[in-house]
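Need tokens for this chain, all 115 residues.
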Amino acid sequence: MSTYGSDLVRAYFEAWNTFDADQRRSTLETIFAEDASIVDPDWTAEGRDAIVDAVGAAREKLGDLALGLTRLISAHHDVALYAWHLGSEAEPVAAGYGVLTFDKDRITQARNFFG
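Here are the structure tokens for all 115 residues:
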């Protein structure tokens, strides 16, 4: 995967862990395409504004728990596969996998899985 693609994965996690709503919005608007979507086991958000709202609501529910990038598993072309954890990596509250699809410098879709 290109360096830029890995930067998008890291920026995605940075956005999830930003407590300031304006700063989080700015990051999400920068990294997501206007017509992007997030598909999560518990919810779906279609369009950048819906993503900003959904991530904000999820961030509120998570409290002070951090969403961490456990490992970037593999990436090629316009897709990245990674493992994530919620809370400490040693004793996570939840863990799973995710797939980001991107077009150049913007995420077009995020799919999250528990596991």
